[in-house]
Amino acid sequence: MKILFTNPPPIIKYGMQAGFKKNGWITDRLEVPEQSEEGLIKKIEEFKPDYLFTEGGVDTKKFVFPVLEKYSIPHIYWAIEDPVANSSLAMEWARKSELTLTPCIEMLRNYKEENITAICIPFAIDPDYYHKKPFKKNFADLDAVHIGNNYDVFDERYNAYNYILKPFIDKQKKIEIYGMDWQNPNHRFFVPDPYAKGYIAHEESVYAYSSTKITLGVHSIENSLTMQSMRTFEVLGCCGFFLTQRTKAIEAMFVNHEHLVSSGSYEETVELMNFYLANHSARERIAINGQKHVYNYHTYEQRAKEIIKEL
Hints:
It contains 13 helices and 12 strands. It has helices at residues 10-21, 37-47, 61-70, 86-94, 108-113, 137-140, 155-170, 202-211, 231-237, 248-253, 266-277, 280-297, 300-310, and strands at residues 2-5, 26-29, 51-55, 75-78, 99-102, 118-120, 144-147, 175-178, 196-198, 214-217, 242-245, 261-263.
């Protein structure tokens, strides 16, 4: 079988596409310069896919929707914006798709009510890409790193900034924070110099996860059993030590102090920070266990197998 991915972000390029390949499917993806109605049609005529696959869908609607009207190729949609955009963007795509995937298990009821076929497919990793990389000194010298944009619309995320990131800044640890809007004066949480470092390429982030003593994680959604930041899986796949905001998904899918470490308060983060920065062997043990766990239970080869079974 052949599947064509209409978007090339890392979650596809280094994730789901590899998962389908490992299940014996022939795959291709539309690159950014090809992302137009004409470009997608040309790729379809050349590749002749059995399925199209789109994740997200904010910017791809304009060229994928017209093509879906012209071709009878079944479409698979991964609603990675669930639950936030479930009633709008996700439902719009789902009604045009053979199968809808959601990383948020609580949304399955909503799809069922709309007579839409959907299954829960959380984020994961491909071990061939997400593995421990060679140390880079600039990251290895750090106490902590956080990679992600400063989203100001989620109160849960803002609260987590204050008890996951702020303790490292307040205690003047060697921390670097990468991403957009960390020094936006209109946002509630502001990262001062020299901690805000701006953009980092995804291909560089895996070296940060592999090298830094502690990688810090925050999540926009706290009350889902499955939905969380995809960086959880990426950090663990790289054998990184992950200190993260405590959420239902973190507690449901991982064991605290076994696969990662989670915190629910400023004081708890300070305690964890002090203990684990002083205990390399404890960090190493948890990082190794975390990598084994995602390799055993959370790979895109496994996720693609579930999708194929449903198809």
